[in-house]
Amino acid sequence: MTALATTVNVMHHAFRAGLADYRAIFTWKSWLAGWMVRVIAQVAFFALIGERLGDDQKTFYLLVGNSILIAAVTGIFSLNMTTGERWAGTLPLLVASPSSPILVFSARGSYLAADGALSALAALFIAGPLFGMELPWPRVLAVVPLTAVVGLASYCFGTFLAGIVFRFRSINGLVVLTVTVLLMAACGVNVPLSYYPEALEWFSRVLPVTNGLLAIRGVLDGADTATILGNAALEAAVAVGWMTLALASFNRLASRGRRDGSLDYGA
Amino acid sequence: MEEVSRVFEPRKKPPVVALDGVSLSIPSGEIHGLLGPNGAGKTTLVKILSTVLLPTSGRARVLGHDVVEETKAVRPAIGIVFGGERGLYWRLTGRQNLEYWGALYKLSARETKARTQRLIDRVGLTERADERVETYSRGMKQRLHLARGLVGDATVLFLDEPTTGMDPLAAREFRTLIAELRREGRTILLATHDMVEAETVCDRVTLIDRGKVVATESPRTLGRVISRFQRIDVEGVDGAVLDQVRTLTGVSSVVEIDGGARIEVDEEGATQVVLGRLVEAGATSVRTSLPSLEEVYVQLIGDRGLEL
Amino acid sequence: MRAFLAGFRLELRIIRAAPDAFIPLATAPLFALIFLSIVRQSGRPDLQADALMAPVLMTLWWIALQQAGNMITGDRWEALLEPLLATPANLASVLLGRIAALTCFGLISFLEVWIVGELAFGVSIPFEHPVALVVTLLVTAFATAGTSVAFAAVFVLTRNAYTFTNSLSYPLYLLGGVFVPAAILPGFIQPISTGIFMSWSADLLRASLKPPPIDDLWQRIGVVVLLGALSFLLGRALLFHVLRRMRTNGELATA
Questions:
Q1: Domain range for residue C48?
Q2: Does domain B230-289 have CATH number 3.30.70.100?
């Protein structure tokens, strides 16, 4: 097989493996009744703050921000799925494999990124009209690919975090939830970046969601294409950056693990 | 226990009779073994006696109190020791686990602390008492289970397969502990599928299979029963010798296997005769073994009219 | 009483040993930051008290749902329920003790948001009606505990408790009027909110931090107590049912 064919083959299997994991947890019914209800409630919770403030613009601002954040919630959740025995087993193999690990990892998690993006978009397109928000057609369709990039960036960030907490699996839940709320606080989801102290503003640019959200807000507000594309590119760069860091940390994990036997760390 | 039955009705499946008219009587101060293969109903029986499960029919009494009606009288006086990895708060230390269970037995804080320390020393966990249970080996967890069972100073103890998964040395130490307990006047019901364990520790043993009591005997009798059924694996003798062996009294079967044979005996004393014959004939290797518990049951249940 | 204390002490030890217990305490300060920045950036300092109390209430809900809700389910999987049954202790008391410990632990979030408000924005909690505040917090904790018992008993009977607890979080924050008063919610949802003790507690908490005198204070406190007690009684009844089922069937509802 050519290198390309091998890579595609591995990606295909990686995707299927991820999907199987996923199916074990969700069914259509539980996704709709359980997950989506919670998602809409989450977005509505914040949008209503805008109503309380008596400010329509603020309501829409909060609505958009918290909808897109849902993509990150799922992406960070990937941390849970990527730790454990399976990880310990496949990790060194993947790192040592001839196909590009970045592509393989992205394939395995793409269903998560996809689910995140899908949930976020569903939230936006359902909650938006509910709160009387007018979505500018057909321009608004540009939000779809942008949300996908946000989902991917969050997944890459989650994967990086997975590498860090790998040895302390008991704090998984704590990390996932704290990071999610942290993103809520730091990525311009609820207040504009200009409100932050400058240092925080710079830091947030390196996190997932921030740039993608700016791009999405740009689309909805009718900003010029160059700005939108610029932010989108930044978000993509953030995704690649975190994935690269993730792989570097996995490399270290794998080699250190080989030395001290920690790769056997099972459930 | 009088004619105790227990039927389980799992959803969408036919009912399972776990216990069928079991009658049993255990005098105080006795270590009584409950011997049976997996699924025989041992755990069910233990659960009923420890008030955790209700019988479908029949009555059972512990220390004179009915297990269904008088749980308030029964529970303070009993202790359960389950086997296995679960049943402990693995994030807490051994000591913390014991202190919790002690408090549940209405001990005062001071009593709890003192008794916990005594028990920790007694079961040999002194060095690891303050480490998380998740770091314990199987044997250590088992010892902690035993300590937990004793924390209420139980008069009656129920042990359900306590040495499963333990290495032989640990299991032997455990049994010594159990013998000590009997000297303290406690009554013990020990459910196990380990024949050796039943033989070495118990005063009497009840054989149970598929929810029914097969027999209640002293281990010596059991031992005799079992040693009747011996198996001899031999190599290096030819067909003529085997034919001879076949005709000896007490030999129930001779099966030829690659290069050798397996001879089964079902009478006491037959083994010596057979062995003598084989050695005379110049066998190159001879090995005897006991049948498994299941095989003994098959024999016993098959010959229901057997005099023991 | 001993059983209650045994449970209380057990849970304190479990909290110390389990990182997950700290989730609400880790997120409460962050939420305080988020909410405060929203109201301040919109030039509404009058809503700062609302912003500060919301994370406290979210913490209490989280504890009721996740920690308490999964308590029996978790114990069951670890084969800890049956040995507990065989002891002379009352299982309901032990459970209540554990839940009480969790609720007290959750009240730490009140201190956290206070500190965050001061450090980050120089905002302190306005103690306009201190008695009302303290009493409200106490009865809210009590009602949370009662509701937790109900959750614990209900969830052990359901098939997929964990997805349940995850999907109920934000809906309960909404219905409980945790930040935005339930009165703002659409008309058809109002009746549900009224039946949830949190909506009353939230209104009272917010009112106790604002200058105007509080209307019908003691009646409303009474409603919280009543709703909490009702949840507790329901939970207790369910618990008996659960235990009886366990003794009779040898197992609980299958997962």
A1: 2-249
A2: yes
